[in-house]
Design brief:
Layout (H helix, E strand, L loop, with lengths): L8 E9 L9 H20 L5 E4 L1 H4 L4 H10 L3 E5 L10 H16 L7 E3 L7 H8 L3 E3 L37 H5 L2 E3 L14 E4 L25 H21 L5 E7 L8 H7 L2 H5 L3 E3 L2 H8 L1
Parallel strand pairs: 1-2, 1-8, 1-9, 2-3, 3-4, 4-5, 5-7
Antiparallel strand pairs: 6-7
Helix pairs in contact: 1-3, 4-5
Length: 301
């Protein structure tokens, strides 16, 4: 279903809260990780921006997680799920559903009501499993998601055998800008690229495959090799403008600029503030607004 043209561009930033090794057993390590996350959240909230913080199981199950989640929610941010499952072999619907249901419950037990799950690309039935687990929206689709498609729907020249796992095929799927900007519903993994108005899972593509610190480099990876800097902020602002003007250029509705950001190390001082400020003119003049996953979902229904 197309999103209404009467509303502004929706800005969705997905923060992948990847688990640090053994942080659920090491309070000092967890506290350091939590400080990075909360600092980002506070800087964003200071400028009335909202982000989606998507928790790994390692973070969500840490004893120190409840007060972190409570503060994130109090600042107006969303707390969702970063699953990181399904990337080995061809898992069954039962296995994927069981894994995703467990992760849904981990986050919901912390006081959130998750609608979004990221990190689910698989050769298995990831769409059906996400729906069965209670999710309604997914972001972060990478090339590996294409391996699950019916061969007739795979892009020309795509070779599934060249994609052994998500790490090897972590680039953005080859969609044009209009497709990336316009979310669609689906209910079938084998045809997830084909919009289904009666579908139950909203696919939000945007700039999937590239973490924010890699935007300027165009290195579609979350390996951490890219450094967050002013060039990435410039590219973020440029892309926001491009998404914002697309609707008038093509005459069709499109209104979600989605990006992801894996915060493994502290961003440079002032990075979050500068990132939000780079699109403040679009927000101030009503061209765009920050949105949580639930707000994106509501707009698409």
């Amino acid at each position: 279903m197309a999103i209404s043209t009467e509303q502004p561009l929706l800005l969705l930033v997905s923060i992948h809260v990847e688990g640090w090794e053994n942080e659920n057993e090491d309070p000092a390590k967890f506290d350091h990780h939590a400080d990075l996350i909360l600092e980002t959240a506070r800087h964003a909230a200071d400028q009335q921006a909202v982000f989606s913080f998507e928790l790994s199981s390692t973070f969500a199950l840490s004893p120190g997680a409840p007060p972190v989640v409570s503060e994130l929610l109090s600042l107006g941010h969303a707390v969702e799920v970063h699953a990181d499952v399904g990337g080995r072999g061809s898992p069954s619907l039962f296995t994927l559903t069981e894994q995703l249901t467990a992760k849904y419950r981990q986050v919901s037990s912390l006081g959130s009501d998750p609608v979004l799950v990221s990190g689910i690309c698989s050769r298995g039935p990831f769409v059906e499993a996400a729906i069965a687990a209670g999710f309604s929206l997914t972001t972060g689709a990478v090339e590996y998601c294409l391996t699950a498609l019916d061969p007739s729907l795979q892009p020309p020249g795509f070779d599934p055998t060249a994609c052994p796992n998500p790490s090897a095929c972590h680039g953005r799927p080859p969609f044009d800008l209009a497709t990336r900007a316009t979310p669609w519903f689906t209910s079938q993994t084998q045809s997830w690229v084909t919009p289904d108005p009666s579908g139950q899972l909203l696919m939000v593509i945007g700039e999937s495959g590239a973490s924010l610190p890699c935007l300027a480099e165009r290195e579609l990876t979350e390996s951490g090799q890219c450094q967050a800097d002013a060039d990435d902020i410039t590219e973020f602002a440029r892309l926001a403008e491009e998404y914002a003007t697309l609707e008038s250029a093509i005459g069709d509705p499109c209104c979600v600029f989605s990006t992801s950001w894996s915060i493994g190390t502290a961003p440079p001082e002032g990075f979050t503030t500068a990132l939000v400020s780079s699109v403040s003119h679009l927000v101030d003049n009503g061209t765009a607004r920050w949105a949580t996953p639930s707000q994106v979902l509501d707009a698409a229904r």
